[in-house]
Amino acid sequence: MNLKYGRESLVNNLVRAGHLRTHPVIRAFMSVPRETFVLKEYRDYAYRDEPLPTGWGQTISAPHMVAIMTELLAPKKTDRVLEIGAGSGYQAAILSKLVREVLTVELDPRLAQLARTNLKAAGVTNVRVIAGDGWEGYPEEAPYDKIIVTCATPEFPPALPKQLKDGGIMLAPLGGSSVQMLTKAEKASGILKSRNEGKCVFVPLRRRDASEAPS
Ligand code: SAH
Q1: Has residue 213 been placed in a domain?
Q2: Do residues 189 and 166 make contact, with C-beta atoms less than 8 angstroms apart?
Q3: Per the CB 3.0–4.6 Å rule, which of 23, 32, 104, 196 could disulfide with 92?
Q4: What is the domain count for the chain?
Q5: Which pLDDT does position 196 carry in this prediction?
Q6: For residues 56-64, average pLDDT
Q7: Which burial class, exposed, middle or buried, applies to 83 when counting CB atoms under 10 A from its CB (0-12, 13-18, 19+)?
Q8: How far is the CA of 106 from the centre of ligand 1 (A)?
Q9: Rounded CA Rg of the chain
Q10: Which structural domain, as residue segments, surrounds residue 91?
Q11: What is the pTM of this model?
């Protein structure tokens, strides 16, 4: 399928389904080539609304999930955003069009390198990919206006709340390995208030020194 046509028709479907809701986010989806972030053998499927393998057992999220999470973050031009789980770099690329800077932490150094290569190929210059364990967040550059976790974890990694600015938003798929609840937490006067935003399925957060996050 023609990729430009595929992108337009995917975006139209995401708008119609109510997943894409605001003009800047719609423009971001129109300007980021998803085909650059999927493996060569899956290019023809780049504009299907499905997760696809990125290699090394991980996946690039389905476009509707990227749309839902991006809208929930309410990105602003001045924001600095921390992402846990760079994967292909696609979610970070979408955010890069909407905020000042994205720092994205990736546990697997091979995927961190893949994300850097993909972001460069897409001409994105305001995303920094850090190879490391996102369970600890990235205190070096904290605090952040927004934090987005794109791997499943039983709870928000305990290091994250103090790396989030007051008034900030944090988003994560919370739950076990088969299904999670997309959870949005807002920090006001130092207190986090969480709400459920619907079921989702992500690959699990793993620890550098163990197989999975503690449950
Ligand atoms: N946001 C990605 C999709 C994420 S898939 C995209 O747009 O393509 C989840 C990613 O989280 C995987 O790449 C996995 O390696 C990574 N991951 C798992 N545990 C992690 C951890 N503790 N710290 C950082 N990244 C982690």
Answers
A1: no
A2: yes
A3: 104
A4: 1
A5: 98
A6: 95
A7: buried
A8: 6
A9: 16
A10: 3-205
A11: 0.96
* CATH code of the domain containing 54: 3.40.50.150
Looking at residue 212, its pLDDT comes to: 53
Residue 210 lies inside a defined structural domain of this protein = no
> What atom in ligand 1 is closest to the CA of residue 111?
13
pLDDT for residue 69 is more than 90? yes
Question: Looking at the domain assignment, is residue 215 inside a domain?
Answer: no
In ligand 1, which atom is closest to the CA atom of 208? 22
pLDDT of residue 17: 98
189 classed as catalytic: no
DSSP H or E stretch at residue 111: helix 109-121
The pLDDT tens digits for 6-44 are 999 999 999 999 999 999 999 999 999 999 999 999 999
CA of 151 to the centre of ligand 1 (A): 5
Output the ligand 1 site: residues, CB below 6 A.
58-61, 84-85, 87-88, 90-91, 105-108, 111, 133-135, 150-151, 203, 205-207
Contact 45, 52 (CB under 8 A): yes
CA distance 135 to 153: 9
